[in-house]
Amino acid sequence: MIIYVESKAFPCKTFLAVVKPSDKIARIRAHLLHILYDIGREDLQFKLRYKGQYLRDAFFIEDYDIPANAVIKMLPVAKRNDTMLDIRSIASTMTVSVDAVATQGLQDVKVELFREIKEFIRREKMIRAFDLIIYLMFLVTCLTLLTNYWYAFGWTAVFFAFTVIFRPYYNRHGGFTGNYTHWRFLYCIFYVVGAVGLLGASLYYTCITWIAVAAHGCKDWVFVDDCSHKSVFTAVLFSSHCVILLASTILISLLFVNFRLEKGDYIEKFLVQERDIELVMKSARSSKVKEKRTAAYELACMAASGDDNKFRIVAEGGLDVLMAMAHCDDDATQEHAVEAIGELLTIQSIQDNFVDMNGVQTLTSLLHSENSRIMQEATVNLYTIVSESEENKSSVVADHGLDDLAHAAYQGTIYCQRTVASIYLELAFNAEIRAQMASRNMPAQALVHLCNSTDPETLRYALQTFELLAIESSEMICAQEELMEVLLDLPNKTLDEKLYLLAGKILLYYAENKMTCEMLVNHPSIRDALGMFARSHDTILQKVVTKVIFCMMDTKEMKLKAREQQLRRVLEYIRDNSLDREAWDMADQGIQAMESDEGNLPTLPMLSTLEKLNKMGGEKQTFGSKTSLGSDEKPEASNSSNTSD
Question: Structure pTM?
Fold first, then answer.
């Protein structure tokens, strides 16, 4: 299958990688390394991302559900000019000889790249040599007609035709080409078999001809009888044919072995090989930036390749080392250290150990990083902690964690914001943390900012979080005037009725507060917003809209304003189109109340807020402050490494 690779570093180029679903991500990286070598950008350090998730070399393509013709992103890892290829590369330039590097014992990914390129160049040379043999073979085939055994032309010509028609074509830049290139291994086998058979026949004719010539003796160099010119020519030609067939057989055997090497075999083996954990940890503790950067990448790769490696890293004190590297000055080292931590946190026991070591504070401090990728990786790791362990949630909000999340909500990328919204939602399901969030203004302001996101998932998580926070403090909701603007502007941004329902429930809190209700009824967009909500097929949302309008008629002044805003049309639409009898009844009562004068106000339902909610929603389909937890199914927040570019 074909994978397309795009990069902002090469805006006018789209790279192609031909791989199989069973290949590892390292295979795609290997294809890209060859392309970068060809265009002179071999020192570019990069990472691969698909749908917001960074791809690990040790994982298989099918593990990430990457389909054929998918487009993945190639992202530079560091901006430093001295950054080497794929973190491991420490050779200074491409002019460094492979042998020289190897003799120095530098296990560098460039060495593997050079090794592959060297083999492919050798393949090109051998195929060119084989082409020369084919030309000689053509000449021999034609000259066979002039020998004593002219009938040998038949099988020689058939073999030559097979050699030419099914011959594989290859060049290092374009790879294999031709209609029969996928038969190259069968070609090699059949060629060897045919060449051996032809070699036997030619050797036979060579022997009997030379024996006849030797027996005659060619006395006085008189070329007659068995020593005629034709006989000598026959012996020489078939001798040459034997040499050609023997050379081509050896060459095609070498090509058969060489054909087994595919682009990335050496590089992939190097990228996912097991390294000595003690040596890696020694490099991680080094004071040299390049060694630490290399060690951070290797730890991330090792952690991604299996649970056994995760426990080995922890046993060698890897958590302390990774936390220290996460605070270093080198962005590439920080990024890979945070990635390695993320891989380790997938094991619950390691996660608990990490929390006990105050590792959460390390992650929350990284939310202030100027590197967006580091910030995003930190939020992903925090989401792993809050989503998998109820006990560890309190560690996230400790020591200004909520404020750190708020900073990420303002400064992060769209994927980072989605993850932050998911974290807030997970934290809001904890009663103690929910009370803490409701008592502070910073999280609420951050959530309002997230509600302005163009990403529907981010908006949904933020609104669900507000719905949960309203359980603790409806006053906190009413204090967010900007949120009211966002909710009323929602129909202009999306047609998602689930988001409409969340917005309607939150607007109900504004409607039940006298001060904010007056702001609501005076808002120029109130009729359009409630009208769009009323057109929903969700009967619960229609009841919410009716209840909001009821609240706007609690005083004579607001009723007059409601009439002026023509909210009666909204009620009429619900009455005429609702399929729910209770929603129809409520809309009809609302129309009557709106048409009545002040003296008829007592005809409105004289129910408490809770009774109204229960009456409107029933026992199972209630909504608002008492049923926020059950009104929507708890979502699984998107991991930012699982979203598309």
Answer: 0.63
